[in-house]
Amino acid sequence: MQLPKHHVAAAGIVINGEGHVLLIQRADNGRWEPPGGVVELEDGLEEAVIREVKEESHVDVRVERLVGVYKSVGRRGTHVVSLVFLCRPIGGRPEPGDETVAAGYYSREEAMKLVTRELMRDRLRDAFANQTAPFVRDYRTPGA
């Protein structure tokens, strides 16, 4: 039996003391979303989200809890299991990184307008719901 190939990703929903959420604008496609990326083989899961947030936004964070687990099955062989964590900033200021063109804190309303991909909007809504148990969601692209 051949095992399926998935990437594991980690993302941070970073909410500051004013209740604003950190978003980055990706350099590759121009989309706004919470910072995150692929978990490297040598990474721990929380370590990965801390590293990704720092690389993409220059913000240092503390992980508070797991928001949810999200599986995306795409049509071009892009199968991803994403772990999304609620984080609090502990240092740094939002600035673009090598993979981003913008980074900043936005109100919940502004964030929901900037983030256009529905699966990313779900992650924001899940974090804002303040549910103690993690959400589990599956996304399948038609024809995948």
Automatic annotation (TrEMBL):
Q: Which UniProt keywords apply?
A: Hydrolase
Which residue ranges does the record assign to the Nudix hydrolase domain? Answer: 5-128
Question: Is the keyword Hydrolase in the record?
Answer: yes
Q: Name one GO molecular function term.
A: hydrolase activity
Matches recorded under InterPro entries:
NUDIX_hydrolase-like_dom_sf, NUDIX_hydrolase_dom
Could you confirm whether the keyword Cell wall biogenesis/degradation appears in this record? Answer: no
Q: Name the domain of life.
A: Bacteria
Needed co-factor(s): Mg(2+)
* PANTHER family reported for this sequence: GDP-MANNOSE MANNOSYL HYDROLASE, MUTT_NUDIX FAMILY PROTEIN
Q: What is this protein called?
A: Nudix hydrolase domain-containing protein
Provide the organism lineage as a comma list: Bacteria, Bacillati, Bacillota, Bacilli, Bacillales
